[in-house]
Specification:
single chain, 255 residues, alpha/beta, Rossmann fold, 7-stranded parallel sheet, 7 strands, 45% helix, globular, binds NADPH dihydro-nicotinamide-adenine-dinucleotide phosphate
């Protein structure tokens, strides 16, 4: 897909969907800055897997819901790689599945901060770096949750809606700088978060028990999300901005 010579930062890139995105972008030629918050071992494994694909990779510990931490990380990445071409706002946490009436205000703030503020902080810091390059791409990893805004998920729903609003506002501001801003919205994906979700909402201990009832006969894999991100960032995706790509096998039934 021709991402050679481009540098990508993936928030929460150490494991789960973030790792799938890191490997897809590296496979297509990009060097990768892998951000993580706590799981250093997973981030180092992802970086090693990127290097095995022949690309450069470095790891960066930073809580992306913290402005100062984002600022320091971005300065370090610019120094290490000499710039940035692709930002993927992927880091995320689930909410506790409670109604608005039962949601703790601290939980609401933590979830919204993790999705919306982190995406704002990193996008704000990335834009000047992307403007200095021939082409820039910003991808927000939202969720199929924004198709339905189901009950008992308000913190998460609001967080993802905020990311999408940020993407659509920003897309209009930076099109003239040759920067594309898009949203990728997965359905259920086999990751730690996906497994917890499957246990809590579908009553299965093994997420793969959902294969037969899933679109196309399998639960979506991190690489499927990575492939969508790689396409949007590629030359083939050059005319796509301000858009939302649902990668959820169509999303039905129930939608
Ligand atoms: P995981 O729980 O498996 O991984 C979460 C990742 O986010 C980890 O890499 C974690 O870092 C990182 N992270 C969380 N908070 C922070 C923070 N404050 N600063 C830096 N990194 C942070 O989740 P997934 O891989 O499944 O989810 C990735 C994204 O995809 C999320 O935005 C999620 O909402 C979205 N999504 C997931 C779906 C699913 O079914 N799995 C469905 C739809 C959307 P660390 O390892 O250091 O803790």
């Amino acid at each position: 897909m021709g991402l050679e010579g481009r540098v990508a930062l993936i928030s929460g890139g150490g494991r789960g969907i973030g790792r799938g995105i890191a490997l897809a972008l590296a496979r297509d030629g990009a060097d990768v800055a892998v951000n993580y918050r706590r799981d250093e071992e997973a981030a180092k494994e992802t970086a090693e897997a990127v290097r095995e694909l022949g690309r450069r990779a470095e790891t960066y510990a930073a809580d992306v819901s913290d402005w100062d931490a984002c600022r320091q990380m971005m300065e370090q990445i610019a120094a290490d790689f000499g710039g940035l071409d692709i930002l993927v706002n992927n880091a995320g946490i689930a909410s506790r599945g409670q109604s608005v009436a039962d949601t703790d205000p601290n939980e609401f703030e933590r979830v919204v901060r993790t999705h919306v503020f982190s995406a704002f902080y990193l996008s704000k810091l990335a834009v000047p770096l992307l403007r200095a390059r021939p082409r820039g791409d910003i991808i927000m990893i939202s969720s199929g949750a924004t198709r339905t805004f189901a009950g008992n998920g308000a913190p998460y729903n609001v967080g993802k809606a905020g990311m999408e609003a940020l993407a659509k506002s920003l897309a209009k501001e930076v099109r003239g700088d040759n920067i594309r801003v898009n949203v990728v919205a997965p359905g259920l994906v086999e990751t730690e978060m996906g497994k917890r979700l499957a246990r809590a909402t579908r009553g299965v201990q093994n997420i793969r028990d959902l294969d037969s009832s899933s679109p196309f006969g399998f639960v979506c894999q991190p690489e499927d999300i990575g492939n969508a991100v790689a396409f949007l960032c590629s030359e083939q995706g050059r005319y796509i901005t301000n858009d939302v790509l649902y990668v959820d096998g169509g999303g039905f039934p129930g939608r």
